[in-house]
Every structure is written in C-alpha cells, then in structure tokens.
C-alpha cells in the first residue's frame, strides 16, 4: 500500500451519524497481497451496509514485539486507539505454514493494553475473520486459530468465516474475486454491521433494573 493510500485509509470512510465504526487489520508487508485485497473488499461491503471503517494494513502493523508495560510508539498507540474506538473488527489473515503470521499476531497482542479498560479486550465486539491460503488445509487451521484467539479476547466471531483458496487460481480472478468469494466477504461484512449496530443500540438503552431502583 502506498503512503498516500495508507494515510487515507486511516480516516473513517463515508461517516454517518451513529453508524458503527469497524476496524480492519491484516495484509502482509507485500502491498496488494491477497489478504489485503480481501480486507479492502470486505470493508467496502461494510460501508455499503451502513458502517464506517478504519483500515490498518501491512506496514501500519509492522510494530515492535509487544512488551507489557513498555512505552508505545506512535504507530502502536494509533493501533490501540483504533481497537478502543471500534465497534467491531475485520481481521484478514494469510496462512503461513498452517498458522497466523507473526506480524498480525503481534498486532493483536497489543489488545493487552486494554486489559483494564471499562470495556476490556474485544468484549462486546463482533469480529469477522478472513483467511487466504494456498490450499484448504491452511484455510481451515488458520481460521480455527483465529477463532480461538478472538474467543480468548472475549470477542464474538461472526458465524461465517471467509476462506479464500489462492492455489491454482483461475487467471480471470488473479486481481479480483469469484462470485462465491465476494458473497462470503459481503456476508461477513453484513454480520459485523448488524451485530455492532444492535450492540450500540443496546448500550444506549437504560438498564431496566437500574431504572427501577432510581439509579441513573
């Protein structure tokens, strides 16, 4: 991703009053990787579904190994701020030897900065998962690993995880997606926006027990 594109992607797209803010992270250090393109397409679908988006990819996630208690540099602080502000996430991940690459896992580890927040880790946030791999085995094992991580962070993985098999890809779809892949990415996006919007509405409602007790 170019510097210009990366800077633009950090701004919420098409802001709408009260719309859920969805953070997308993923990709690799290689610009326009399959996982970055999948993330871009999914975030576009998020906006079409009524959400706002922030995207941090590739070099944006090239951070020092997470160290609890260490002072955060500007890029790490930007990531943690985005985690805190978002109503939901999309994580788009390549499969490296059947697992999650260190670049992305390290970025996720920065959620430890939120351990003592009022809303810690990924509590109450829907998380859409996308895996790109050269074979279905890598898709399956990496997707399962991501789901376990999201559960450990108390997030809510969407029912559908998008799996894109890049092996022996039809030349017609080298830089785009098949109808089935596009449907998966769109379904993940719609699930995130629907869940995040419902959670925002729920949080805005008064607690009936507190209201009955006269506690504001």
UniProtKB/TrEMBL annotation:
Domain NADPH-dependent FMN reductase-like: 22-159
One function term, GO molecular function aspect: oxidoreductase activity
SUPFAM superfamilies referenced in this protein's UniProt entry, alphabetically: Flavoproteins
Pfam families: FMN_red (PF03358)
Coiled coil regions, renumbered to chain: none
Name of the featured protein: NADPH-dependent FMN reductase
Organism: Pigmentiphaga humi
